[in-house]
Automatic annotation (TrEMBL):
One of its GO terms (biological process) is carbohydrate metabolic process. This is Glycoside hydrolase. Coiled coil: none annotated. The keyword Protein biosynthesis does not apply. Keywords: Hydrolase, Membrane, Transmembrane, Transmembrane helix. It comes from Acetivibrio mesophilus. One of its GO terms (molecular function) is chitin binding.
Length: 582
C-alpha cells in the first residue's frame, strides 16, 4: 500500500513538471516578441553619441536650425561657454578662436571678424538657446536631424566608430540586455545590406552590444546576430596642448620685469644682462572699467631691446588699488572686448613679442571671470604671433590649473612671503618656502612644469622695529636694492650669519634704539633659487625687477639657466659651497 502511494505521488509530480516546463520556458526562455516605439510620438529627442540627453529644457528646431539650451552646451561640449546676462551676449573660446554672439542678432564676431548666422542666440522663458550647427566646426562635432524619428544626433569627430550589421533574420534591437526586453527595431535583410541596417556600437558586454540605429534608436543587440564590419577613425588626433609660441634657443627662459613708468633715455645704464631672454616693461595699465588703457610704451625701447637680442613681453596690469573697478571690467563682456582690442592694437604698433598679464588684488569671487578674460585674449594674441603669459600667486582669485590651459607660460610670483606690511619680519622668499610652493603647484594644482616660471626677487626688505614710551612695538619695512642691502649690512657692522632654511644671509643690528633685521638676496640666494628650475624641470625663471639687481646676478642666472643642463650637474658644481659674507 505504501509503495502504491509513493508511486502515485511520483506520477503526479511528473505530470506537474510536464505541465510547468512549457510555462517556465514561456516565462523565462521564450524571447519577447512585443515591438514598442523607441521614442514617444512627437517628442524631439537629443542624442550625444550613445546617450540620450535628458534635461529640464529640451532642444528646439527653429526655421530648420537646431538650437540647444545653454546648460546642455556647457555640460556636453564647452564647460567654458560664457553668458553675459546683462548684455545678452554669449562668448565661446577655443584654442584659436573667440566667438561672440548677441541674442536676437544674426551678426556674430569670430576673432574680431563679422560673420552672419542663420539663426541667432535666442532667449525663451529665461532659457538661453544656442545655434549649435554654427558651432559644430569649433567644437569638433557633427550635428544631424533625422526627420523620420524626430531625433537630433550629435557625434564627436575625434572618435573611433565601430560599425556592425545584422546577419541573421532573428536580429533585433531590444530596450535592455535580455531577450525578455521588448523590441525597438527589426531589420529587413531580404534586400541585402542597406544604410538602414547599419548599427554603431558604443559598448560591449558579455553577450550584447549597446548600439544606435541609423535613426537614433539606442538599445542592445545580441552579438551572435551581428558582424562588426569596420572601424572608422574620425579625425582621431591625440589632443595635446600646442607648443608655446616661443622658446629660447638655448636652456631655460630668463625673464626679468622692468619697472619703468617713464621714458628711459639711456638704456646703456642697465649694463650687460648676460643670459637674459625676455624683458617685460610695465607699460600698460587698465584706466577704467570701460577697458581703456594707460599707455607708457615707446618704440625706442623696443628697438633697443631687439637690438640686444631680448624679446619684449609688455606687462598689462589692472589698477592694483581699485578692486571694484577691476571687478566691473571683468564682469562686462564689452569692456573685456574693448581692452583686448586696445592691447592688440598697441602690440602691433610697437612690434611687441608678447603680453604678460598681471592682474592683482582681485576679489576671489572674480576668479572665473578673470580666467574667462585670459581665455578670450589668448587666442587673439596668439593669432597676432604674440607669446601669452599670466602672473599668479597663492591668492584664491587665481585658478592656476584653468589659467595654464590657454596661455603659453605661467609666471609664479613666488616672493613676498613676508610682504611690506607683514605683521612679522621675515624673508622675502625662503628657498625652502619656494620649493614647497613648487611641489604643491605641480602636484596638486596641475600647472604643467613646461609652462611654469619660478618668480625670483631681486630685492630685500629692511625691517625696522621701534618701541614707544608705553612699550608698544611698531614694525615697518622698506624695499632695498641688492647693492643697498649689502652696503647697509657693512655700514652698520651688522651681525651676519648664514640661514640654511632661508638660503640667505641673515643680518641684524640696533641703531638709535631701533632694531633692524634683513634677509639678504644676493648671488648666493639667487643661485639656490635658480637651481629649483633645474630640479623641477621648469620652463625658467622670472625676476622682479631689473631696478633692484646687482650686476653679478646675471652671471649666476646665465650659468644656472643656460650652461647647466641638469640638477645633478648643479649639485656637482655646488657641493662644496662655503657661505661667507664679505
Amino acid at each position: 500500500m505504501k509503495k502504491k502511494i509513493i508511486g502515485c505521488f511520483v506520477i503526479v509530480l511528473l505530470l506537474a513538471l510536464v505541465a510547468i516546463i512549457p510555462v517556465g520556458y514561456y516565462l523565462y526562455f521564450k524571447p519577447n516578441d512585443n515591438v514598442v516605439p523607441a521614442f514617444l510620438e512627437g517628442e524631439l529627442v537629443l542624442l550625444v553619441e550613445g546617450d540620450r540627453v535628458v534635461s529640464k529644457n529640451g532642444p528646439k528646431l527653429m526655421e530648420g536650425e537646431i538650437l540647444l539650451p545653454f546648460d546642455v552646451v556647457k555640460e556636453y561640449f564647452d564647460p567654458h561657454i560664457f553668458w553675459d546676462e546683462a548684455l545678452g551676449k554669449v562668448t565661446i573660446t577655443t584654442k584659436d578662436r573667440v566667438i561672440r554672439m548677441k541674442t536676437d542678432n544674426l551678426n556674430a564676431i569670430v576673432n574680431n571678424e563679422p560673420i552672419t548666422l542663420n539663426i541667432p542666440v535666442t532667449v525663451e522663458n529665461e532659457v538661453v538657446y544656442i545655434p549649435i550647427e554654427f558651432l559644430a566646426e569649433f567644437y569638433g562635432i557633427e550635428v544631424s536631424y533625422i526627420q523620420e524619428s524626430n531625433v537630433i544626433i550629435i557625434d564627436y569627430k575625434n572618435s573611433i566608430r565601430q560599425i556592425a550589421e545584422p546577419i541573421q533574420p532573428e536580429a533585433v534591437v531590444r530596450k535592455g540586455r535580455s531577450i525578455r526586453e521588448p523590441i525597438i527595431r527589426k531589420f529587413d535583410l531580404t534586400s541585402g545590406g542597406t544604410s538602414e541596417n547599419t548599427l554603431r556600437i558604443f559598448e560591449e558586454y558579455d553577450k550584447w552590444y549597446k548600439v544606435r540605429t541609423w535613426d537614433g534608436a539606442i538599445g542592445y543587440i545580441e552579438k551572435r546576430f551581428v558582424v562588426v564590419k569596420r572601424m572608422i577613425v574620425e579625425e582621431f588626433l591625440e589632443q595635446k596642448d600646442p607648443k608655446p609660441a616661443w622658446m629660447p634657443p638655448k636652456g631655460k627662459i630668463n625673464l626679468a620685469w622692468d619697472m619703468i613708468y617713464s621714458r628711459r633715455e639711456d638704456h646703456a645704464s642697465l649694463g650687460e644682462m648676460k643670459g637674459l631672454d625676455v624683458i617685460s616693461p610695465t607699460w600698460f595699465q587698465v584706466k577704467n572699467d570701460k577697458g581703456e588703457l594707460i599707455n607708457r610704451a615707446y618704440s625706442k625701447y623696443v628697438d633697443w631691446a631687439h637690438g640686444e637680442g631680448y624679446q619684449v613681453w609688455a606687462l598689462l596690469s589692472n589698477d592694483f588699488t581699485d578692486t571694484d573697478m577691476t571687478s566691473r571690467l571683468l564682469n562686462n563682456t564689452d569692456a573685456r572686448d574693448n581692452l583686448i582690442k586696445e592691447i592688440l592694437a598697441y602690440a602691433a604698433l610697437y612690434k611687441l613679442d608678447g603680453i604678460n598679464i598681471d592682474f592683482e588684488n582681485m576679489y576671489n569671487s572674480d576668479r572665473d571671470v578673470f580666467t574667462q578674460f585670459v581665455r578670450e585674449i589668448s587666442p587673439l594674441l596668439r593669432e597676432q604671433g604674440l607669446v601669452v603669459s599670466v602672473d599668479v600667486n597663492d591668492i584664491k582669485c587665481y585658478d592656476k590649473r584653468a589659467l595654464s590651459q590657454p596661455v603659453d607660460y605661467i609666471m609664479y610670483m613666488s616672493y613676498d612671503q613676508h610682504w611690506s606690511t607683514s605683521p612679522v619680519a621675515g624673508s622675502v622668499a625662503q628657498v625652502s618656502w619656494q620649493e614647497k610652493i613648487l611641489k604643491r603647484v605641480l602636484e596638486e594644482e596641475g600647472v604643467p612644469r613646461e609652462k611654469l616660471l619660478l618668480g625670483i626677487p631681486f630685492y630685500t626688505r629692511l625691517w625696522k622695529e621701534t618701541t614707544d614710551a608705553s612699550g608698544k612695538k611698531k614694525l615697518t619695512s622698506s624695499a632695498l636694492t641688492m647693492k643697498q642691502a649689502k652696503n647697509n649690512i657693512i655700514e652698520n657692522k651688522a651681525k651676519v650669519e648664514w640661514d640654511e632654511e632661508s638660503g640667505q644671509f641673515y643680518a641684524e643690528y640696533t641703531k638709535d634704539n631701533t632694531y633692524y633685521r634683513l634677509w639678504l638676496e644676493d648671488a648666493n640666494s639667487i643661485n639656490l633659487k635658480a637651481s629649483l628650475a633645474q630640479k623641477y624641470r621648469l620652463a625658467g625663471t622670472c625676476a622682479w625687477s631689473i631696478y633692484f639687481v646687482s650686476e653679478d646676478i646675471w652671471d649666476v642666472l646665465n650659468r644656472n639657466l643656460k650652461e647647466i643642463e641638469s640638477y645633478q650637474e648643479w649639485l656637482n658644481q655646488n657641493r662644496d659651497n662655503q657661505y661667507k659674507f664679505p
